[in-house]
Amino acid sequence: MTPEELHAHLQHVYFDNVDTANPAGAVLAFTRDMHWQHTQVWPHDGHDSRHTDHLHGRAALLEFMQTRVKEMQVIRIRHRVDEVIVQGDRGAFRASVLDPSGRSLGFLGWIELSDGLIHRYLVVPEDSSR
Fold first, then answer.
1. How far is CA 21 from CA 37, 66, 76, in A?
2. What is the pTM for the complete model shown?
3. Which residue of 7, 72, 115, 126 could cross-link 106, Cys pair, CB 3.0 to 4.6 Å?
4. Is residue 76 one of the residues assigned to a domain?
5. What is the CATH number for 30?
6. pLDDT per residue over 61-87, tens digit each?
7. pLDDT tens per residue, range 110-126
8. Domain enclosing residue 101, as ranges
9. Is the Cα torsion angle 27, 28, 29, 35 positive or negative in sign?
10. Which residues of 60-95 are buried (b: 16+ CB within 10 A; e: fewer)?
11. Is 29 exposed, middle or buried (CB count within 10 Å of its CB: 0-12, 13-18, 19+)?
């Protein structure tokens, strides 16, 4: 996968679907047996960076997102992929979460790919002091 293809995959298949409350579309970015590790970037609804979620399998991610994307609609945040690096079946990205006022928080991600889908996904806040 090229950096441009991975950027499009992350932005349009995953994050755009998260932002429009379409968890069924968002999970299609991942393999069925994927590993998803996410440390909260934008504190909301009792979620903050003191907790890291670990999910295994697309079905577990779908179940988790069916609740989480509804919460995100209330606070109206959006995700934007800013930079992507790919080498073979591994890559990294830098992205931002933005609110309607323009406030932004950055986060970093590591991914591993399999058959054009994300098999391993790890995200951490860029500024861990939040």
1. 20, 8, 11
2. 0.87
3. 126
4. yes
5. 3.10.450.50
6. 999 989 877 776 656 789 999 999 999
7. 999 999 999 999 999 98
8. 3-125
9. positive
10. ebbebbeebbeebeeeebbbebeebebeeeebebeb
11. buried
Ramachandran angles phi, psi of 111, nearest 5°: -135, 155
CB atoms within 10 A of CB 46: 8
Tokens read off for 17: 């679907």
Indicate whether 44 belongs to any domain. Answer: yes
Number of domains within the chain: 1
Q: Are strands 78-87 and 90-98 parallel, antiparallel or unpaired?
A: antiparallel
Residue 113 lies in a domain: yes
Residue 130 domain flag: no
Tokens of 35: 């590993």
d(CA 48, CA 44): 7
